[in-house]
Amino acid sequence: MKQAYHLHRNFTSPLSIRKYLFTVWMLAILSLSVGCVSLNTIGQVGNTVIEELSDVNIFTDEEELQIGQAYVAEHERGIKIYTDPVVTNYINDLGQYLVRHSKRNDIPYTFKVVDTKGINAYAIPGGFIYVHLDLIRAAKTESELAAVLGHEIGHIVGRHSMKQLTQVYGLELLKQLILDEDDSELKKLVADVLAVGLLFRYSRDHERESDFYGVENVYDAGIDPEGAALFFETLRAKRGSEPSAIEKFVSTHPMPNERVLNVRNHISKLPPKSGLRADSSRFRQIKRRIR
User: Which among 27, 41, 46, 54 would be 20 to 30 A from 247, CA to CA?
Assistant: First the structure.
């Protein structure tokens, strides 16, 4: 007897995702146990589930925050947080302003500046965003800096790290989360993921989606989205003249040649809007302060 299993992505909550995928998984195993389907069919079902998991997040916001907090507690032991209140308040103000205009503004966000060499910025699940001091120095205008923050906010909006975690550990996580088993193994799995930096290994599609989220975010906030393309051009130039300066950025942000073109193409599809801000006196003040 042949059976067909179909997955759909119109889930309404992480809990429904868990229950649905777990049900499919259990049906596959049950069918095998009673001899209804072949091992090959079970393999196909498993592959279908894993394929669907590539764009599915099984974690609640609370679980994402817990994972993010656990990572941050370890991460900040190895970095130097920049504490000049004039600079950090500006970054937080700009970041929170963008958050208010983002597609996911119902969770708290934290913005911090890192005093570490190299141009870089990154997002940690749960709304934690870090910006290197050298990246602020590299940005020529506020719109360029805002585009970077918008891109990182985009990773939070898209829940990209949590989708990576779902995809890699897939059914094992589902089994433990649904059945509420002893969570020691789950904690070990999460610790392993954090240790190898999986949370920053975004797919090409995730990076592209985050670029688009960032463009739309700054545009909705009244900031010129062209800053995104200009910043990528700045990085491309530095990659040729100062490759060590963007080593960390490249390690967590793939830079395909068409990225600038993709961003500009997306910008061209936005409706015309007057009064978009490219720069500000406060940004220029910050640039002088950290020069």
Answer: 54
Q: How far apart are CA 208 and CA 228, in angstroms?
A: 12
243 φ, ψ (degrees, to nearest 5): -60, -30
Buried b (16+ CB within 10 A) or exposed e, 224-239: bbbbbbbbbebbeebb
The secondary element (H helix, E strand) that includes residue 52 is helix 39-53
Provide the pLDDT confidence category of residue 7 given band limits of 50, 70 and 90.
very low
With a cut of 60, say whether residue 251 has pLDDT above it: yes
Residue 271, φ and ψ in degrees, nearest 5:
-65, 150
pTM for the model stands at: 0.79
Q: How many residues does the chain have?
A: 291
State the helix-helix crossing angle for 281-290 and 85-100, rounded to 10 degrees: 140
d(C-alpha 159, C-alpha 216), whole Å:
17
Place of tokens 């599915």: 56
Asked if 151 and 213 count as a contact pair (C-beta separation under 8 A), the reply is yes
CB atoms within 10 A of CB 205: 12
